[in-house]
Write a structure and sequence with these properties.
39% of the residues lie in helices and 22% in strands. By secondary structure, it is an alpha/beta fold.
């Protein structure tokens, strides 16, 4: 029996967009769709927080009913659970292996972090978490590109496996981007330094490493067309620029050894999550 695609819904426009993405993902992969609405316990009283499914908030029920009407062939369930949203959603996703959430991106003030539930969940969930913005340019549909940020000398199997699988199911190009930082001098040499030549040489070397990291995944997914790129510095900016032609951005993060109290996603992931206008998948790895 295939696991479900789990999506957290709270009635917002962002969660409606997440439900649309998750429903299309479930349809394409032959999985069921499991909608989860978390009710925060009042005063720690979980019993008071629980309400049966037929008493879902109207906005949540409307999302459920709309998805069921659009995809009547899709096996869809909707449940309401008590608890702290980030931990309850992470637990729900871990059971099935994929969690989809809505994301607000940047708020009205530049640099203001919003969507804390999504950030916190993505930081400590032990399964891939896809964050979808309302009106996101990327969809769960076929075609376009799947963009993955990688480090050629430390390939993350879980991240590449997720990215290649997504590209294969969509018939999309897999575009791998690595940001290279030029090491600082001084360089000991008697010949005049040609900084551009040094940069070209280092970039070419990193590209070889990146191609090597992708090679065995190309063997596993021979139908996936891949493109490898190495850019100078600015990983976040490079990924954001590349994301304009992408249906999905895939990033990795180190899986925590224990639950964490606050999001710890790394600076590049933070920037991409808050500024990308396409869905972003955060994949934990060792």
């Amino acid at each position: 029996m295939k696991h479900a695609v789990v999506v957290g819904i709270d009635g917002s426009a962002q969660s409606a967009a997440a439900a649309d993405w998750a429903a299309e993902e479930a349809r394409r992969t032959g999985r069921s769709l499991r909608m989860v609405h978390v009710v925060r316990a009042e005063g720690g009283d979980l019993a008071r927080a629980w309400r049966p499914a037929d008493r879902l908030p109207r906005s949540v029920a409307e999302i459920r009913d709309r998805i069921s009407a659009l995809l009547p062939e899709l096996r869809t369930t909707c449940e309401q659970v008590p608890g702290t949203p980030s931990y309850a959603l992470a637990a729900a996703g871990e059971r099935d292996g994929l969690l989809v959430l809505g994301s607000r991106g940047l708020g009205g003030v530049a640099g203001l972090l919003v969507g804390s539930v999504g950030l916190r969940t993505a930081a400590h969930a032990r399964c891939p978490v896809v964050l979808v913005r309302d009106g996101a340019g990327g969809t769960a549909g076929e075609g376009s590109e799947v963009l993955v940020g990688v480090q050629g000398d430390r390939p993350c199997d879980a991240v590449l496996a997720f990215a290649f699988d997504q590209a294969a199911r969509r018939g999309a190009v897999l575009r791998a981007v690595e940001a290279r930082t030029t090491p600082a001098g001084p360089y000991r040499t008697q010949a005049p330094l040609d900084q551009q030549a040094i940069t070209r040489s280092l970039t070419a070397d990193r590209l070889v490493h990146l191609q090597d990291a992708l090679s065995r995944w190309r063997e596993r997914f021979p139908d996936v067309l891949t493109r490898a790129e190495v850019v100078d510095d600015g990983a976040a900016e490079a990924l954001l620029e590349a994301s304009h032609s992408a249906a999905l951005v895939v990033l990795g993060r180190r899986a925590p050894g224990h639950p964490v109290a606050a999001p710890r996603l790394g600076p590049v992931t933070h920037v991409v999550l808050h500024r990308a206008h396409v869905p972003v998948a955060v994949v934990p790895h060792d």
